[in-house]
Design brief:
Blueprint (H helix, E strand, L loop, with lengths): L6 E6 L6 H17 L2 E7 L5 H6 L5 E5 L2 H4 L3 H15 L3 E4 L3 H14 L2 E6 L1 E5 L2 E8 L4 E7 L4 E5 L15 E4 L30 E5 L8 H12 L2 E4 L1 H5 L20 E5 L5 H7 L4 E6 L12 E4 L6 H12 L1
Helix pairs in contact: 4-5, 6-9
C-alpha cells in the first residue's frame, strides 16, 4: 500500500438502499477504517439525487457519474469509469457487490490496474498491510484466507454476508465526476431482456422457500409459491429442479447458481449436495423437510423434519396464515 492515506472505493451499481447495499458499504467502510484511510462511494446518477444523499451517510466522499450507459449497467462503461477514478485516487482496494455486472468487471479491472482480484468474499480484512479475503472453497467444505499481495485489491463480496455500514456523525461530501466519459467503448448494448419475477433479487431475500428434485415435478412448486406468499418470502430451487425445467433458472441456488444469506432458508425435498450447500452456507437459519433421514442437508440445518412435504406444506401454510394475519 502507498504511504499516503489509503483510499477504499466501493462501487455501487444500484440505486436502492437495501440490506445488500448496506452490507456492501459496510465492507468498504470497515476496510477503510482498518487501513486508516478514506471511504469513497461511487454511484451513477446526479450529485443532487436522493440516493447520493443516502450514500453520504456511510462514506467520507460520494462521487456520482451521470451517464446513460452507467444507468443501463454497461460493463465496459463502468470499467472505464472505475479505472479512470482509480488512476486519480490510487486506491488500496475496490469493493464491489455480487451482481453479474460486478462479477464481470472484477477480474478485468484488476488486470487493467495491475492489482489482484478475488470474488465471493465473506470477510475482508487487513494483515501486514495486505488485504486478506475469507471465502468458501472446495464446494463449501472448507474456508480459506487468501492474501492479496498486489495492489489494488479488487474484490466482490457475497450479498448479506457483511454487516451493514454504520451511519457517520457527519455526512460525507458529494461531488459529480466525469471519469471515463471521453473514453471510447468497444461494445454497445443492442438489446436487453428483463425476466418477469415477483419481489426483489433473490440474493437480498430475508426468507427463502426452496424446492428440489424430490418434489417430483413442477406442480408442487405451486404449493411452495403459496407458502412463500404467506411468509412474504421468495422462492428458489436446486440446480436439478431448474435443469429439469420445472422453474426458471433465475431461481437456482448453489455453487453454479446464486449465493444467498437469508435469515431463514427452508429447503423442501432438497438432498443437500455440497454444491447446493455452498450457495446457502451464510443463511442464519436453515430448515429442511425431506423423507430421507440420511439426507446431507440435515447435517447443516438447525431444524429438520423427516416427513413427506405433502403432509406438511398445506397445514404449515394455514397455520402461518392465521398467525400472521
Amino acid at each position: 500500500m502507498s504511504e499516503e492515506k489509503p483510499i477504499v472505493i466501493t462501487a455501487v451499481f444500484t440505486t436502492e438502499m437495501n440490506t445488500a447495499t448496506a452490507g456492501l458499504l459496510g465492507a468498504g467502510q470497515r476496510l477503510a477504517k482498518e487501513t486508516g484511510g478514506a471511504h469513497v462511494a461511487l454511484s451513477s446518477g446526479g450529485s443532487d439525487s436522493e440516493f447520493a444523499a443516502k450514500l453520504s451517510a456511510f462514506a467520507d466522499r460520494v462521487i456520482t457519474v451521470d451517464s446513460e450507459d452507467l444507468a443501463n449497467s454497461q460493463p465496459e462503461s463502468w470499467l472505464n469509469t472505475i479505472s479512470s477514478l482509480s488512476s486519480q485516487e490510487n486506491p488500496a482496494a475496490v469493493i464491489l457487490g455480487n451482481d453479474i455486472l460486478s462479477q464481470e468487471i472484477t477480474p478485468r479491472l484488476a488486470h487493467r490496474l495491475g492489482g489482484a482480484s478475488i470474488g465471493d468474499a465473506q470477510a475482508v480484512t487487513v494483515e501486514d498491510s495486505n488485504i486478506v479475503v475469507t471465502r468458501s472453497v472446495y464446494g463449501g467444505k472448507a474456508v480459506a484466507e487468501i492474501e492479496l499481495t498486489a495492489s489494488p485489491a479488487v474484490v466482490w463480496v457475497r450479498a448479506q454476508s457483511m454487516d451493514p455500514a454504520e451511519a457517520q456523525a457527519t455526512p460525507g461530501t458529494i461531488t459529480a465526476g466525469d471519469f471515463g466519459a471521453n473514453v471510447e467503448t468497444r461494445t454497445r448494448l443492442v438489446e436487453s431482456h428483463d425476466e418477469e419475477s415477483e419481489g426483489g433479487r433473490l440474493e437480498d431475500a430475508q426468507i427463502i422457500v426452496s424446492g428440489g428434485r424430490g418434489l417430483g415435478g413442477p406442480e408442487p412448486f405451486e404449493d411452495l409459491i403459496a407458502l412463500a406468499k404467506v411468509l412474504k418470502a421468495q422462492n428458489a430451487a436446486s440446480r436439478a429442479a431448474c435443469d429439469l425445467g420445472w422453474v426458471p433458472h433465475s431461481w437456482q441456488v448453489g455453487q453454479t447458481g446464486k449465493k444467498v444469506a437469508p435469515q431463514l432458508y427452508l429447503g423442501v425435498a432438497i438432498s443437500g449436495a455440497s454444491q447446493h450447500m455452498m450457495g446457502i452456507a451464510d443463511s442464519k437459519v436453515i430448515a429442511a423437510i425431506n423423507t430421507d433421514p440420511d439426507a446431507p442437508i440435515f447435517k447443516h440445518c438447525q431444524f429438520g423434519l423427516v416427513e413427506d412435504y405433502k403432509k406438511v406444506i398445506g397445514p404449515l401454510k394455514e397455520k402461518l396464515a392465521k398467525l400472521l394475519s
